[in-house]
Amino acid sequence: MDSPGCLPGAGLADLIRTAPLLADRYAQMSNSLNTAPVTLAALAKECKAVTDALRRFKYLRQTIPETLVFDPVLLDESCHEALDAVATNLSQLDFYSARIRPATSDSAVDVSNGQLTIIWNEDTLRQIHRQLRTSRQSLAFLLNCVPSEHVTSKNHSTFMHSSRLVPWDCAISPAVLNKGSRLRLSTIGPRNRPDVSSVCDVSGVHSALRRLRPKPGTLFKQSMRTTKELHDAIDRGDEATVVKLLLQRIDPNAPSFGSKITPLRRALSRQLPSIATFVAIAGADLEHRGEDGDTALITAVKQDFSDKYVSLLCDLGASVNAVDALGCSALHYAAMSSNEDDDTLAVLIHAGADVDRRDLGGRTPLLAAVQNYRFKSIERLLEFGADLEARLHNGRTALHVAISMRSCPLVEFLSDQGAYLDRRVNEHTALTFAIAVACPDIAEVLVQAGANVDHPSTKGNFPLLAAAAAGDLRTMKLLLSRGARLDAVGGEGYLPIHMAAHKNRVEILHLLFKSDSPIDPLTEHGETPLTIAMHLGCYEAAQFLIEIGANVDHAAPGAERIISQALKAGNTRIAMALVRGGADLTTPLRRETSMTPIHQAAHLGQNDVIATMIKAGVDLDTRTWPGYTPLFFAAEAGHIATVRLLLAGGAHLRERSKSCGNLLFMYISQSTNNNAELLLEGQ
Predict the structure, then answer these.
(1) Which entry of 58, 222, 448, 654 is 20 to 30 Å from 298 by CA?
(2) What does the pLDDT read at residue 103?
(3) Where are the annotated ANK repeats, by residue (predicted)?
C-alpha cells in the first residue's frame, strides 16, 4: 500500500488518492478480530465520505467558470482551512493505521489467524474521527453554498444532487458559516430563462456583463425606437437582447412611451432578477419611485427577490432607509415577508438599515414582524439589536400587540425572548390585558413566565380583580395558587369579592369564600359586596352572600340599611332574601324615623315583601311616632291590597295613634274616603 507522504503539504490529487486507500485499510481492519470494530468501521465510512467531498471540490473547480457574480478563487480561499484540516487528519490516520495493519513485511502483528488485536489507542482514533468528520462537514457545507446553476457541465446533475445530501451530525462553526455566507452572497441565485430565448442566444451574456457598468460621465442614448426595444425585450424576458441594448448605452431610465414605468421597474414587476440585475448595473436610477412611493430596493423586498439581489442593490448604492408612502422601509417589508429562510434582513442591516425605524403608524420592523406572526424574523431582529420594548402610538409594546392578537404561541415566544412582563400600558399590564381579552391560556403563559400576580395597572386594576370581573374561574384558581392577595385593594377600594358581586359572578364568589376572602370588606364609599349586589339588582350574588353570612343590616355612612334601600329601589327579590336572612324589620330608619322597614314596605305597597315579613314573624302592630302602625301607612297611601294583606296577617284595625285617632277618624279628618268602606266593613 502506497504511503501518502506528508499530507499537509500534499496536493488535492494526493488527498483524493489517499482517502480511499485509508478507507479500504480501516474497513479491512474492522472485519478482523479486534477490540474496536465499531470505531474502525466508522473511520472507514468517514474516509469514504471524505473521498466524495474531495472529488466534488475538484469537480466544482474544474466546471465553474469565472462570471460576473462568482469567482472560483473565492471557493479556493473559503475551503483552504477545511482542506488543510482534512489533510492533517488523514495524515494522522495513516500514521496510526501502520501500527495495527494486518501482517506484512513491515508489521509484526498477525491478525489473520484469529489472534485478537488490542487497539490500544482507540480513544485517539475516536478523537481523530470526530475531527475528520467536522472538517469534512465544513467542506461539504461550503460546497453546498455554491449554487448548481453556475456549473456549466451538461452531465453534472446526478453528481450534484447526490453529493449535496449531507447529514449534519454536529454544528458548523461560526467562521465556516461566515465563509458560506460569502459564497452565497457572491451570486444572485437562479436565473429562469424563458422559452423564447435559446441557450445560444445568451451564451455571451456573462462575458458582456463586465462592460455593463457605465464609466463616469457616460452619456446615454435615448430614442423612441431603442427605448421600445428595451421595454419589449424585458416583457419577453429576452436577456440577450437586454444586455445587447444596454451595452449600446441605451438609457436604462427611459420610461416606455405613454407610461412612467422605467426599465428597472418593469423588470421588477415581472420578477425577472437577471434582467433587473443587468439594468441596475447598467446605471438605472435605484431611487426612482413607483406609484406607492417604492424605491427599487423596497419593491425587490416586497416581491421576495433573493437576498443576493438585495445585496447587489445595496452594493450599487440603493438607500436602505428610504421609505414608501406608508413610511415603511425595505426592512419593514423584509420583516413581514413570509420568506424567512433567506438572509435579506441581515443584508439590509449590514448595509446600514435602521433596525428601529418607525413607519407612519409608529411600527418598527420588529412590531411589523409580530403583527404578521414572523417568528424567525423576530428572532433575527432581536439578534441585531432591535428594541423589544418599542411602542406603537397607542403605547402598546410587541408583547401587548401579541396579546391583542390572542396568539398564545407568539406571547410565549416573546416572553422567552425577554419581553418585560409587568409594563403598564394604558389601563393594563400584560397580565390584566390577557384577562380582559378573555385569553386564559395567555394569562397562564405570562404567570408561568414570571409575571407579577399582584401588579396593578395604572388605574389600580390588579390581575385577581380583573379575573373576577371577567368571570375567569380558571385564571382565578391559577392566581390564587401562585399566592395572589385576596386583600389587594383596587380602584375605589374594590376587592375581588366586591367585583364578583358587582358582576353577579356566583362561581367566583364561591371560590373566594373557599379561599377565605373577607365577606364584608368596605369600599371607599363604605359599601359591602352585598350592598353593591343590591344596588345593581344582582339577585344571585346577593342570595349567595346572604347564605354565607354577609351582614344584612349594614348601612354605609349617611345611608339607610340595605333592606330599606332595596325596598326603595324596588329590588323585591333581594328585599325578600334579606328578610329571610334575618334583616332587622322594626328599627326606625335613619332619615325617616316615623318608619321601620315594615312601615316602609306598607307605604310602598311591597306586598310580596310584606308576605315574607309576615312569614318571618314580624310584629304588624309595631308603632312609630306618632303611634302609627304599618296599617296606617298602607291605608294612607291607598294600597287596598296591602291593607287586606295586613288585616289578613293579623294587624289590629282598632289601633289608635297617640292622639287617640283611629284609621277611620284619620281618613275622615283628611277627607280621604278611598278606603273608608273597607275600614267600615272591618269594624
Answers:
(1) 222
(2) 43
(3) 292-325, 326-360, 361-393, 394-426, 459-491, 492-524, 525-557, 593-625, 626-658
In a domain, 462, yes or no: no
- Read off the CATH number of the domain in which 651 is found: 1.25.40.20
The reported pLDDT for the residue numbered 654 is: 64
One-character DSSP codes across 53-70: HHHHHHHHHHHPPP-SS-
The string of pLDDT tens digits covering residues 125-136 is 889 988 998 888
Q: Are 179 and 213 part of one and the same domain? A: no
Most distant CA pair in the chain: distance in Å? 147
What is the tens place of the pLDDT at every residue in 584-612? Answer: 998 888 888 888 999 999 999 999 999 99
31 & 152 share domain: yes
Structural domain ending residue among the three candidates 269, 290, 318: 269
Radius of gyration of the chain measured on its C-alpha atoms: 44
**Dihedral sign of CA atoms 86, 90, 96, 100 in order:** positive
Q: What was the pLDDT predicted at 581?
A: 93
| Number of structural domains in the chain | 3
| Residue 30 sits in the same domain as residue 129 | yes
Task: List for the chain the helix, strand, coil content (%; round to 5).
Answer: 55, 0, 45
Q: Is residue 45 part of a domain?
A: yes
Helix count (H) and strand count (E) of the chain? 35, 0
Grid coordinates given for 638? 291607598
The parent domain of residue 617 ranges over 588-683
Residues of the chain where predicted confidence (pLDDT) is lower than 70: 1-10, 64-72, 99-116, 147-172, 174, 177-178, 181-210, 654-683
42 plus 171 within the same structural domain: yes
Comparing CA positions, the residue from 312, 310, 330 lying closest to residue 320 is 330
CA distances from 479 to 246, 347, 589 (A): 70, 45, 42
317 dihedral zone (left: phi>0; alpha: psi -120 to 50; beta): left
Report pLDDT for 174.
67
Return the pLDDT at 193. Answer: 34
* pLDDT tens figures, 443-487: 999 999 999 999 988 788 899 999 999 999 999 999 999 999 998
**Do residue 128 and residue 250 come from a single domain?**
no
127: left (phi over 0), alpha (psi -120 to 50) or beta: alpha
Q: For position 34, what pLDDT does the model report?
A: 77
What is the CB neighbour count within 10 angstroms for residue 52?
A: 17
520 found inside a domain = no
Given 228, 245, 269, the domain boundary residue is: 269
Give the model's pLDDT for residue 94: 87
Q: Are residues 17 and 158 in the same domain?
A: yes
Residue 122 contacts residue 159 (beta carbons within 8 Å): no
